[in-house]
């Protein structure tokens, strides 16, 4: 995270620490700002005085004169019960309540008068006196406008018409709605801490030299102002006004943390400040509402002078401390960025490479500022990239299987389309940036935690956020929840549960619901990645900033929620998105046209969930999400509203969001003004990609999905949609080889089965695994491989440029050149690595043989077709890269070749079986089908064709045995419907025959 730089601050500090005698700047005492009183103030004060006189003195005088004392003069309860209830009785009861209301209002006046005159803190609350105390506050404020010191500390009469709740809250009302999630993070910069220490030490020495007085040269103080309308003072605004940069509020917090304020409380969170509190300011603070040590400031009241004197004697600097306010631990309510821990160094046969940070797990140090043409937004979003990549692979596999089974006409056996342009760059960025291992660990860790808590009969704690830091997982709780189950342990305080990366790796898959499916990445701060739990927020999360910047944040959040790997099910409602993201996850995403439809939909959803929780007897969705009460109604509903709602709609959304966290509903709403009713957490996205939340202590490098990348991602998913019509790309494979004798390759690699290479010398033993793996990746991507994709596949933890280039040089030297001098490893016009056509794999030959047999020469020549299909099936020696070393070739998890190869082998076996059955050679057909089943044992088409070929032998016993074997393989799921129908046709008595064979 970029650090603040302030030359003025540094120079001032340097002068003091150096003991220079030069006079500090701005030595003239600056009084507290006092608003000038107007004629209107005197008019308001007069009417307020009359109103107070009537209410406090006139009301009791009138009651005493007209109604008298409301209580009986004797205490005889039994006589009271026996007495008749008359009109006088009701009058006495009414008079009693009027007296009670007067007494309550008088108490409110006294409390407000005391607080206003003392200027200390927020007035105490009189129980049950909301409206009365509000009225008393306004009248006292108006009356004291003519006082000497009260004008700056009281709100105006203009607030009288506002809502009771809004006026009843103190300055920290907005912050108190935020449950202490992201309080001020601990100061990390040693330079800043040292500067504060020097400043404090110098101030203490100077105070001691002056005989213990509070004279400290240019030390300045600021008094927190009361709210004006809906505006509340905050440290961010104070820093912005007087230090020129709102982000310097951390310095103010460090100087004043845990120091006793005039009202007896302490500053423990940057977001929780109160009117009347005093803040010591850095020496370079400027502005008219500051005061220096106030001996020479006659306009400052003696009480305020004394408070500042007393406050100046508190804090570490008063005892000559070393600036512990910047580094010391806070109170239990203090929540900060998780403590950093060094990541363990993994054992890796690859050359040593620096370990990347949590925000750039797959970006090498040398590549951090250079993307080689790939979108930086996706390179810096490892969890989002992993989710998109996994969902895209699943979509492509669906398309392959549906094509193979004829679900989509005209596309059977077709290769997935090869992306081009922006879509190709985005796909490469996903391959480079994805962290599937991190997603797997996060998912297993959260589910394992839920299972452990369920085993102990403990409820899931409310989690506001998760931090991924150096491979460790920190859960930030809404409140302390006791000791976590092992291997989790308490973090830096009671509201952090921590799990190390090593402990997370010991978790296995467990059969339990995802406990926190609403977690979504927002960005990185320092070396930690933040995931906010949207469904746990007690209200709306508002996002302000430019429209395009907001849209990039919304798109990133929506895409990750739709494709993440730590959720089971959810509904994501999108409103106001320029690009419809529904193709990413049609089962999760729904798109509504406007805010009106959203309000109507969410009103119904809120009612339904409240009723469901009440009927189930649960307090919240967390108590019903795991265990025997699991149900789809506990899945989260997350609303992403990119369009700014109208004032009326905003109020409706605020009402719906008031109870949303208990119901598992989250709201992220965009606003251009940054002022949204009901917003519990307010964030802002800047044009520089920073996500700011000053009251939460957040300044993140935001995770974004800009419009261009959003369109390219959607294009990838649309092209892979299995329901697209047959008007897609042609069915010709992207790469065919010459299968004639003249087309014998110079380098031939066997990938289908054990990995073998023919035509090359065996490389150096230490580098051989890397070279073989790099060549396999290139052979499986004849369209070309981006250099960064290659390096991220071989070194998932990152690698420097020189190591990657050294490997490519060795790979070029190993592959050599063709007879015409052309290197066998080249680059295309986009800079991607490509292999020459003289370098061929058996998978390339297998594709070419099948294509030539079914669409080439084999179409017109039966003999040629049979020979080509037989040659193709002979190439199949087992699964892809059958003997690959453990821990390597992890990039295969991103590929769909594990689905392509079985389908290609099955298509070849079916075609050869058909070829033999045409001539009545059932045994040959069975032999071909069995050969294909060794590679594609789950392909229903092969089993059905095997049943037909066996039936052609006219041997019921053999057919019955095959049926029994097929039933045994199907397990508890039973036979597929089409296979069962085929058996009914071929062997109507198969059920009885199978049962008899099993009994025998």
UniProtKB/TrEMBL annotation:
In Pfam terms, one family for this protein is: BTAD
- According to the record, the residues making up region (Disordered) are 1-30, 314-368
Q: Which UniProt keywords apply?
A: Membrane, TPR repeat, Transmembrane, Transmembrane helix, Two-component regulatory system
Feature: compositional bias, Gly residues: 318-331
PROSITE patterns according to UniProt: TPR
Compositionally biased spans, kind Pro residues: 341-354
Please list every transmembrane segment annotated in the UniProt record, as residue ranges: 45-69, 89-113, 134-153
Q: What ranges cover the TPR repeats?
A: 906-939
Q: Which Gene3D superfamilies match?
A: Tetratricopeptide repeat domain
Record bears the keyword Signal? no
Q: Name the SUPFAM superfamilies on file.
A: TPR-like (SSF48452)
Q: What residue stretches are annotated with the Bacterial transcriptional activator domain?
A: 841-987
* Bias-annotated ranges (Low complexity): 7-22
Name of the protein this chain belongs to: BTAD domain-containing putative transcriptional regulator
Annotated source species: Streptomyces incanus
């Amino acid at each position: 995270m970029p650090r603040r730089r302030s030359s003025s601050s540094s120079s001032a500090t340097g002068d003091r620490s150096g003991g220079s005698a030069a006079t500090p700047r701005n030595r003239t005492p600056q009084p507290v700002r006092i608003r000038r009183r107007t004629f209107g103030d005197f008019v308001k004060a007069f009417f307020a005085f009359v109103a107070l006189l009537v209410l406090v003195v006139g009301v009791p005088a009138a009651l005493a004169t007209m109604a008298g004392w409301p209580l009986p003069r004797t205490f005889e309860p039994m006589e009271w019960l026996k007495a008749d209830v008359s009109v006088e009785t009701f009058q006495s009861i009414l008079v009693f309540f009027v007296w009670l209301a007067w007494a309550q209002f008088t108490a409110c006046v006294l409390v407000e008068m005391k607080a206003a005159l003392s200027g200390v803190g927020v007035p105490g609350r009189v129980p049950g006196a909301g409206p009365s105390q509000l009225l008393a506050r306004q009248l006292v404020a108006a009356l004291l406008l003519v006082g000497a010191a009260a004008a700056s500390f009281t709100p105006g009469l203009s607030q009288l018409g506002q809502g009771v709740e809004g006026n009843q809250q103190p300055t920290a009302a907005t912050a108190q709605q935020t449950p202490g999630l992201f309080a001020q993070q601990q100061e990390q910069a040693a330079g800043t801490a040292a500067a504060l220490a020097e400043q404090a030490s110098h101030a203490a020495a100077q105070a001691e030299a002056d005989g213990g007085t509070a004279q400290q040269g240019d030390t300045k103080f600021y008094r927190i102002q009361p709210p004006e309308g809906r505006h509340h003072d905050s440290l961010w605004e104070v820093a912005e006004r007087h230090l020129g940069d709102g982000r310097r509020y951390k310095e103010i917090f460090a100087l004043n943390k845990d120091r006793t304020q005039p009202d007896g409380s302490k500053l423990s969170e940057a977001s929780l400040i109160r009117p009347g509190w005093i803040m010591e300011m850095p020496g370079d603070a400027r502005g008219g509402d500051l005061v220096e040590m106030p001996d020479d400031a006659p306009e400052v009241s003696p009480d305020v002078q004394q408070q500042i004197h007393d406050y100046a004697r508190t804090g570490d600097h008063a005892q000559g401390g070393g600036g512990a306010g910047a580094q010391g631990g806070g109170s239990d309510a203090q929540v900060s960025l998780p403590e950093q821990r060094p990541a363990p160094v993994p054992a890796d046969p690859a050359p040593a490479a620096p370990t990347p940070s949590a925000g750039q797990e797959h970006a090498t140090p040398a590549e951090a500022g250079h993307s080689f043409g790939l979108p930086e937004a996706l390179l810096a979003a490892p969890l989002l990239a992993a989710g998109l990549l996994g969902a895209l692979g699943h979509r492509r596999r669906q398309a392959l299987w549906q094509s193979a089974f004829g679900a989509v006409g005209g596309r059977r056996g077709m290769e997935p389309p090869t992306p081009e342009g922006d879509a190709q760059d985005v796909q490469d960025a996903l391959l480079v940036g994805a962290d599937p291992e991190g997603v797997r660990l996060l998912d297993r860790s959260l589910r394992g935690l839920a299972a452990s808590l369920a085993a102990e009969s403990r409820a899931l704690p409310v989690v506001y956020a998760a931090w991924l830091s150096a491979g460790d997982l920190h859960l930030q709780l809404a409140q302390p929840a006791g000791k976590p189950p092992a291997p989790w342990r308490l973090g830096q305080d009671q509201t952090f549960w921590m799990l190390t990366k090593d402990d997370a790796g010991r978790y296995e898959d467990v059969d339990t619901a995802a406990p926190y499916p609403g977690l979504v990445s927002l960005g990185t701060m320092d070396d930690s990645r933040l995931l906010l739990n949207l469904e746990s927020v007690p209200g709306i999360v508002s996002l302000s900033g430019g429209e395009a910047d907001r849209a990039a944040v919304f798109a990133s959040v929506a895409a990750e929620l739709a494709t993440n790997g730590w959720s089971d099910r959810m509904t994501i409602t999108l409103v106001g998105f320029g690009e419809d993201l529904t193709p990413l996850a049609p089962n999760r995403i729904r798109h509504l046209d406007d805010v009106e439809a959203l309000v109507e939909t969410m009103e119904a959803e809120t009612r339904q969930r409240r009723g469901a929780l009440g009927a189930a007897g649960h307090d919240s969705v967390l108590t019903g999400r795991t265990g025997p009460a699991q149900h789809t109604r506990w899945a989260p509903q997350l609303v992403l509203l990119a369009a700014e709602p109208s004032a009326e709609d905003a109020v409706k959304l605020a009402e719906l969001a008031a109870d949303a966290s208990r119901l598992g509903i989250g709201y992220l709403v965009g606003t251009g003004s940054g002022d949204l009713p009901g917003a519990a957490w307010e964030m802002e996205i800047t044009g520089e990609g920073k996500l700011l939340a000053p009251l939460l202590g957040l300044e993140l490098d935001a995770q974004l999905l800009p419009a261009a990348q959003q369109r390219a991602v959607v294009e990838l998913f649309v092209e892979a949609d299995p329901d697209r019509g047959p008007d897609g790309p042609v069915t010709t494979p992207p790469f065919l080889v010459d299968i004639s004798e003249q087309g014998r390759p110079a380098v031939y690699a066997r990938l289908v089965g054990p990995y073998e290479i023919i035509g090359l010398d065996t490389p150096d033993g230490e580098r051989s695994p890397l070279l073989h793996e790099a060549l396999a990746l290139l052979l499986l991507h004849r369209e070309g491989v981006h250099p960064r994709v290659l390096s991220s596949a071989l070194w998932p933890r990152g690698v420097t440029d020189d190591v990657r280039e050294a490997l490519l040089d060795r790979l070029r030297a190993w592959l050599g050149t063709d007879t015409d001098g052309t290197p066998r490893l080249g680059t295309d016009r986009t800079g991607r690595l490509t292999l020459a056509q003289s370098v061929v794999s058996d998978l390339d030959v297998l594709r070419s043989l099948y294509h030539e047999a079914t669409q080439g020469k084999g179409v017109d020549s039966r003999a040629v077709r049979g020979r080509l299909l037989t040659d193709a099936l002979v190439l199949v020696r087992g699964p892809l890269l059958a003997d690959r070393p453990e821990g390597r070739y992890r990039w295969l998890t991103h590929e769909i070749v594990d689905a392509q190869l079985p389908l290609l082998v099955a298509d070849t076996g079916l075609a050869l079986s058909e070829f033999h059955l045409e001539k009545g050679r059932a045994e040959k057909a069975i032999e071909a089908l069995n050969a294909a089943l060794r590679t594609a044992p789950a392909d229903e088409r092969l089993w059905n064709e095997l049943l037909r070929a066996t039936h052609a032998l006219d041997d019921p016993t053999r057919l019955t045995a095959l049926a029994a074997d097929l039933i045994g393989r199907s397990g508890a799921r039973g036979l597929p419907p089409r296979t069962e129908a085929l058996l009914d046709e071929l062997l109507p008595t198969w059920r009885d025959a199978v049962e008899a064979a099993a009994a025998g």
